[in-house]
Design a protein that fits this description.
alpha/beta; seven-stranded parallel β-sheet
């Protein structure tokens, strides 16, 4: 289905993993894309263009306000508007330190990217969408934004906060034509997950066993939910953290 036909979207953190999968899925659904990342976005854009879609790429560090403003401006300059935004850029931080042993600099870096980066992107996206009468924002949170995760306090705190600002923004803009939602994946087969288990096969088994379906999610599975939330098919959905976790949160 081409449920994004004629729409314009941007995706941060689109150089790999869930971000790239979401960008490719949005393009298949008919959207023109601005894809951004620290690196890798150009390859994502090339894949979209090679498949017959429309895309531009941007180097964007979401911790820098100037980069974020330039990304939104380039999207509008290239395609004339902004209908949907997927705020995916994020980092893991540490998954192996108890809170009292965790590094302060790591904590600040995780919040700078995962929380303040989303905040900064939303501000620019919302301003543009208000000018044009509506839109849809999807923030990539995590099941760790809804439940606890031992030895991952920084990541968990950042993703809980993403769910919180998603809900608050949804209420602020509900009558102004802008919907704001989040997706909350569990362990997904991405570079981030692979780096967390590198050299630790036991950790890989623990991750799989934690999910009742017995496997990691695939980026393409998360991307399908992202497309739905970006599209008019979810027109009565806002403020919702959509859980995509193979049953983990039900245990």
């Amino acid at each position: 289905m081409r449920q994004m036909e004629g729409k314009v979207a941007l995706v941060t953190g689109a150089g790999r993993g869930i971000g790239r999968a979401s960008a490719l899925a949005l393009a298949r659904a008919g959207a023109a894309l601005c894809v951004s990342d620290i690196d890798g976005a150009e390859e994502t854009a090339r894949q979209i263009i090679d498949a017959g879609g429309k895309a531009i790429s941007m180097t964007c560090d979401v911790t820098k306000a100037a980069d974020v403003s330039a990304m939104v401006a380039a999207t509008v300059e290239a395609f004339g508007k902004l209908d949907a935004a997927v705020n995916n850029a994020g980092i893991a931080g540490s998954f192996d330190q108890r809170l009292h042993e965790a590094d302060d600099a790591m904590f600040e870096r995780v919040l700078a990217v995962n929380l303040r980066g989303v905040w900064r992107c939303m501000k620019a996206e919302l301003a543009e969408m208000l000018e044009r009468g509506g839109g849809s924002i999807v923030n990539i949170a995590s099941v760790a934004g809804l439940i606890g995760a031992p030895k991952a306090a920084a990541y968990t705190a950042s993703k809980h906060a993403v769910v919180g600002i998603t809900k608050s923004a949804a209420l602020e803009y509900a009558k102004l034509g802008i919907r704001v939602n989040a997706v909350c994946p569990a362990y997904t087969d991405t570079d981030m997950a692979r780096s967390a288990v590198q050299g630790n096969p036991l950790m890989a088994q623990i991750m799989e066993r934690a999910i009742p379906m017995g496997r990691l999610g695939q980026p393409e599975e998360i991307a399908e939910a992202v497309v739905w939330l970006c599209s008019d098919a979810s027109s009565f959905v806002t403020g919702h953290p959509l859980v995509l976790d193979g049953g983990l949160a039900a245990t």
